[in-house]
Amino acid sequence: MKDWLGPLSEPLGFLWLVLVLWMLRRLWRKEWGRACSTGLLVVVLTLVGNNQLTSELLATLERPYAGRTADELIQADAVVMLGGTVSLSRHDCFGFQFNDAADRLVTAVDLARRGKGRVLILGGGARGAGGAMKHEGDLLLRLLTAWNVTSLPVLVLEGCRTTHDEALATQRILIEQGWRRVILVTSASHMRRSEAAFRKLGIEIECYASDFRGLAALEEARPMTIVPTVGALQTLSLYTHEVLGWQLYRLLGRL
User: Fold this and answer.
1) Fewer beta carbons under 10 A from the terminal one: N or C of the chain?
2) How far is CA 149 from CA 115, 141, 143, 152, in A?
3) Is 122 a domain residue?
4) pLDDT in tens, 5-46
């Protein structure tokens, strides 16, 4: 019962229930056309809001990068973490809050602590607007410095809005320092496009993914429910973002 009541208490689940009741009402009154159109909407919501289905889709992007351990990685010139882990929050102690991709930072710092690179490079774009604009890498650097979690030098990739920008900025650093090889850290679902973008520029990389959201959801083996959830839609959004992003990068010649 709890597995049903939880999703039904969400706005999406409640809307789905209203639609189901409306469809049944139309069927009772033998209004077949209206019942079918409402039923079609119910089916679509059920499919796109199904956590099992959307997690399986996202997991197809993650599986090629699963199962690797840090011990398998050969030391590189730099550990590069792509941005997308924080949003501004002036009421929080470091001026930002983490989002669901925070595993990227945990993974990158762990590799730095293991001495897997000469430097730790933090990617990410600008956050905020006007005078309140701050760079994601600078925000994270503030945290790493305060906690003294790594002895490696930390560099920040500035002026990056996209993964392609981060690849270009990384390439510039490698050329300046005479380096060649990096360990690339990002979310598992984002790794395929990131890997291709970096390799397109001739950067030698080893991929070490984090944030296995789809596979983690499947491992939890939650009971199947037909009631759609917001979490499932967010998972589907990640999948479609990467699929469309891959096609866009191909059109732009970035892969």
Assistant:
1) N
2) 12, 11, 9, 9
3) yes
4) 677 778 888 898 899 999 999 899 888 898 899 989 999 999
